[in-house]
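Table S2 (continued). Query chain:
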Amino acid sequence: PDAHITQDGKYLVLVGVRNQKTKPTGILTVWKSNPAKEDRPFAIGVEAVPTCSAISSKNQVALGCTNVVMLGDLIGNRTFLTLPTSVNHVWRAVAFTSDGSKLAAAAQDGALVIWDCNTGKVLKNLQRNEVHFNALAFSPDDKTLAVARGRQGQRGTITLWDVDTGEVRRTLDQHTKEVHVLQFSPDGKYLASGGADQRVILWNPQTGKAEQILRGHTGTILALTFSPKGDRLATSGTDQRIRIWSTRHWMQMVALHGPRELIWSLVYSPSRPVLVAGCGDNKARIWNGGVEK
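Corresponding output:
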């Protein structure tokens, strides 16, 4: 399950799976961030089972599924279209550019595709055979696409692609095991990565140098997110802890006790001082000032 908050801060979205024991399907549950008493969440169902998701600045939703990538409107007509792909893939990560004009998706078998969100046409197909992609992220200026790869138990690497040319700019390779999550800081100064080696590495995207290595987790890191101002970084893993780091000195500010269920995603609200986690029981949990709500 992935938790998202729209860029205007008006909606909280949880992407999950229902009917897991019979015929699994996807479901998006949407809440208003500041609901009136009469407001109720609404749900959007999709036949495919999502394995990853993203929301654009235009409130479009992308769902990466076992065999398809789907694109739809969250607030408008709430319908989803299947984007063209050459063959079936197990999609592991999707990401929008900051302006919402492009969507990238990375697959388990090494497929890497970029679409035009207005036309649905494929802009680039950067297939890499026998490469196991796990995560991806666009830089804030939309010029660089970071893609993490690595099979379970193997050394993980991160490739920085030039979005316009499709050429590889550099490869980052200080993780000793597979990388699961990536995110650029809001100012683009850092790229944060985390994975099975229980470390968070802060990279300089321009030089490829590892500027900081954050230690403290005792399990695989599954989620991380920067605050909207970029002054904090939240991380979580299989150790059932959410750690909040100051990006000024890269010191841990607080460690929150997470739920028994795994936390698969983290997101800060752009309009309120809260942190939202998408958990393995298909529920979203919200922390405000270090207290779970």
